[in-house]
# Entry
Amino acid sequence: MDAVDRRIIAALREHGRATYAELGRQVGLSASAVHERVGKLETSGVITGYHAVVNPSSVGLGVTSLIGIYSTDTADDEDVAEALARLDEVESCYRVAGDESFIVKVRVATVDDLERTLGRLRRIEGIARTRTTLVLSTRFEGRPNTSEVDDGDE
Amino acid sequence: MDAVDRRIIAALREHGRATYAELGRQVGLSASAVHERVGKLETSGVITGYHAVVNPSSVGLGVTSLIGIYSTDTADDEDVAEALARLDEVESCYRVAGDESFIVKVRVATVDDLERTLGRLRRIEGIARTRTTLVLSTRFEGRPNTSEVDDGDE
DNA sequence: ATTGAAATATTGCACAA
DNA sequence: TTGTGCAATATTTCAAT
# Structure
């Protein structure tokens, strides 16, 4: 992984559909070379995927919440994580340090759906209780931090 | 926005670099038709962008934390949000209901960097204090919830 | 990493359902 | 209006170097 790889990554983080030809022009390489580099970044697990980002309310998922998950004393957190993964509405899941075992981000259509999700969460073996924080608005999300892609050498 | 649009969106959420030709094969439309539909979804703000997802530690951002922001009594939350947006290491920013005004997700290279970021946060006008939850591991993140894309009619 | 070449994809446009 | 088919570019993807 050199500076060129990092520039390609930064470009793809901002513009996931950039063509290899475009990327090549940006970094001063042929499309083929970029193609091969990106392929290697993908198979080595540096780039894990490409996703379209959608305005949640326009796909009927207007209610976002951040939910802290408290485990029971005897819980196996691995099992809890798997149970959380089985719920479609759980978009992200973080294992955290502190009183809570996990913090998850949940996106649903309505507060009624949120209530249903909370019910499902509480019924998961190993979950003692939950603490819900409702998101009023998302100022920004998943913004690429490219601060480390600063190369001195060019 | 019809069922075909929803299927295209679902496909692009999973596979952001899918070609129009590929998408067309999936939904039974010509590449031209898909091209036009996607263009409209983009200009109407349904699809807001495409991004490569990168393994954070492989780009030197191995430390993730979720930080609750408490505002002062006199704070203008709009100003606070703008100040938060100016910090590169703040990847996501949610305005929330509850004791905290915002919850932000911060990604940095080391705990030293985290300490520096916390210092920057506390120096922002309008922020009274912060509450940091360290992420031990990310089980999954930004997973597309396609549960609402269930069409009965096909 | 490059070049060259064949296969594939993009994208504008005329026209048809 | 939305989709199709076509044609001109452009891109992808290989093999050879």
In short: Residues 148-154 of chain B have pLDDT under 50 and may be disordered. Chain B touches chain A through 62 residues (CB under 8 Å).
